[in-house]
Every structure is written in structure tokens, then in C-alpha cells.
Amino acid sequence: MDNFLNINKIGEGTYGVVYKAKDIIRGKEIALKRIKLENEPDGIPSTALREISILRDLKHPGVVQLLDIIFTNDKLFLVFELMHTDLKRLMDLTKGPLSTDVIKSYLQQLLEGTAYCHAQRVLHRDLKPQNLLVDSKGNIKLADFGLARVFNIPIRPYTHEVITLWYRAPEILLGAKFYFTSVDIWSIACIYAEMASGKTLFPGDSEIDQLFRVFRALGTPGDDLWPDARLLPDFRAAFPQWPQKKARTLLPPAVCEDPHAVELFELMLRYDPSKRLPARLALSHPYLADARRTVPDVLIPTDHLQ
Questions:
Q1: Residue 234: is its pLDDT beyond 50?
Q2: Secondary structure of 188-254 as H, E, C letters
Q3: What is the set of active-site residues?
Q4: Cα→Cα distances 286→167, 269, 281, Å
Q5: What whole-number distance in Å separates Cα of residue 124 and Cα of residue 203?
Q6: Residue 156 pLDDT class (50, 70, 90 cuts)
Q7: What GO MF terms are annotated (predicted)?
Q8: Does residue 95 have a known ligand-binding role?
């Protein structure tokens, strides 16, 4: 810890406390995340261990970089590159939709980071605006890998208690014990719509409310619409029957003027997980052909929680 100067607290959450500091060795500002060890009978929390084990092997511009791990005086610190804030706070500051250029830039970077993780056999499983870090140079990076999992073939059963409710794929809401990289794609589609509208796409307050919000928006699965949904543990024949609708109806009218924007959204927000467009293929979609690194219109604060 003697290698750090000007250590200032910039935020606190359930996971621990985040500090901004000057790294003497690296000659730059970094973020120190102190993991709370109090009330942890098993020592270091499993989420912290998972994040460490996964991030130490991930090296990509679209993934926040873990620089070091420090354990001293019964305190655990994770040293990260410094990012200024997260996408949720940026959208709160914007107070409305992001510009088209920023959306394209962020979406391209998110897909690049996600495609890399999937190529490394890593499911993030908790993509949401609060876990996407941004800076004042137009960069956005995947962060908070506490719920991530490394997967192998054959896929083994996973818990469905993952992914923050609003961004949780319908197969997980229906109790699927086996799922794949497509759960991250559903989350990205929800984030895409939120950047475009300035509003959360499916803000449910419980699992059943979340599921019914999706059904009302896209239609209740049945013979013609994702028939395999009936095979999932928590599907019920008694579910209310809402008519099928196109995903494009969830986008603002201004966005729908661009057919490429609509098509990419519909390819990612598909019910059937096997038909959702993978991240690596989404990167080749015409909507992103002119994407370029773009700085947001609002001034990003440099002393917020990362």
C-alpha cells in the first residue's frame, strides 16, 4: 500500500469501498476496490474470488483491467485501471436517450468485449448499465465479474439466480438449468434499447412481473412463438395469453427510422436462445459499419464510484 498516494474514497456499495489513488510505480491514477471481509465466515467472498480468477486471464480493451491484488492487515484490495463512472450514471446525467453516434460506439465496444469473453469461454451473467464503466474519452468496458462463469462443453447446470432482474433472459426466468452465451446477448439488447430511449426496457419488480412484462411486449410463447419454452421447468400453460408483437415496437420512433438499427435489435432480442445473434456476428451488422469512438455530450465527472 506504500506504492499509492492521495487515496480518496469515491464510493461504497455492498461489495466494499472504492478509492481513487495515484500509483507511484505505474505513474498513473488507479481505482482500489477494498473487498469487505467482515461477516464472511469463509474468509474472502466467493464473488471476489471468482472475479479475481476470471479477470486475471482476460486482457482486452473492452474489459476493465485488473492490475494487481493486495492482501494486507486482513484487508483485500483489487487494483483496477481507473474509469470515471458507469453507464447508469452517465444516462442519469444525460436525462434522456444517448446520441446515435454514442450508442453505436458503446454498442460496438460492448459487443467486442462480450465476443472476446465468449471466445475465452466466459459468461458474464450480469450485464447491466451499473456494471459497464465509461470514461471521458468515449471508452466503455465490461466490469464486475462476480457472477461470471467459465463454461466448458458439455455445458453443466447453472443457477438461475443470476443477472439483475431487468436484464435477465426469459429462459432463465423460466427456470432453465442449461443456458449459454445468448443470455448475455439478451442483456445487451435491453441495454441497447435503454440507451436509445433513456428508459429501462423491462423494469419488473419480481420474477413473475418481469416475465409478464416480456410476454406483454413480445407475446406469450406458444406453438408458433418459441414452442420450446413449454419444456422449461417454470413454464405454465395457465400463463395469460398475450398476442405476438415485433420487438421493434419497443424502440422509439426516431430509432425505427433506421432499418439497420431495428434489425440488429430484433436479432438480439429473440425469444429462442439458439436464434439470438452472437456477439461476434453482431459486430459485422450494417448498423455498426460507421461506428466510431465518440465522446458523450455531457461532462463525465472524474470522481464518481467505478
A1: yes
A2: HHHHHHHHHHCCCCCCCCCHHHHHHHHHHHHCCCCCCCCHHHHHCCCCCCCCCCCCCCCHHHHCCHH
A3: 126
A4: 25, 17, 11
A5: 20
A6: low
A7: ATP binding; cyclin binding; cyclin-dependent protein serine/threonine kinase activity
A8: no
